[in-house]
Design a protein that fits this description.
Blueprint: H1 5-28, E1 44-45, E2 51-57, H2 60-65, H3 72-83, E3 91-97, H4 109-112, H5 114-122, E4 126-130, H6 132-140, E5 156-158, E6 164-168, H7 178-188, H8 190-196
Parallel strand pairs: 2-3, 2-4, 4-6
Antiparallel strand pairs: 1-3, 5-6
Helix pairs in contact: 1-5
């Protein structure tokens, strides 16, 4: 009996879930960063998301819950996704510096490089890179076949032959001031156009 497309997709999803669970265990056992008893802040969302959101470091609410994009940033992103008619189930959010450090610049390079593995597992079609620090980190980690991304706000660029990237301002810096909110939205709404043009398969 031939295998259906649904069964194949189910197998890929099961594998992604297994790999993310293993990735999480490795992160929790990581000895590199001086985080003490605090747990790393983990990515959240669909294990095979079309859209990966990437910011540099966690805010206090994310550290408290141990989940990326928990709190104000996550709420703002959910509202923006709804406005753009993007299914939140098609999105995965994560951080470059997963360790909850008072100074994210203390994060070990080997820890930040783990984002390469996370991208390989999720295999997004686009990465929304939030802010200068996340852009610099993504350019430095050495994703296979990746071209350097330019700091061009609201422009879809080709990161690899199969992954696009969209550079937007850091969401955490765009929550309180009207001009910063507008700048974020002007760049982020390009994601809606990109998503609407995705083939329906």
């Amino acid at each position: 009996m031939p295998v259906t497309d649904d069964e194949i997709r189910e197998k890929y999803l099961e594998r992604a879930i297994r790999e993310l669970n293993s990735f999480t265990r490795e992160l929790q056992a990581c000895p590199h960063c001086p985080r003490g008893n605090l747990m790393p802040v983990l990515g959240s969302g669909h294990p095979q998301a079309d859209v990966m959101l990437l910011k540099y470091a966690a805010q206090p609410s994310e550290i408290e819950e141990g989940v990326a994009f928990y709190g104000r940033a996550g709420t703002a992103i959910m509202k923006s996704l709804k406005r753009l008619q993007i299914d939140p189930l098609a999105v995965y959010g994560t951080l470059c510096a997963k360790c909850p450090l008072s100074d994210p610049s203390l994060a070990d390079e080997a820890c930040i490089a783990r984002v390469v593995e996370e991208v390989a597992i999720v295999a997004p079609k686009i990465i929304v890179v939030m802010g200068e620090d996340a852009l610099a980190a993504l350019n430095d980690v050495g994703i296979p076949l990746a071209a350097p991304l330019e700091p061009m706000l609201g422009v879809v660029q080709s990161l690899t032959p199969i992954i696009d990237a969209l550079y937007v301002p850091d969401i955490d810096g765009a929550l309180d001031e009207q001009e910063a909110k507008r700048e974020f939205w002007d760049a982020f709404r390009v994601l809606g156009e990109w998503y609407a043009a995705l083939p329906p398969y």
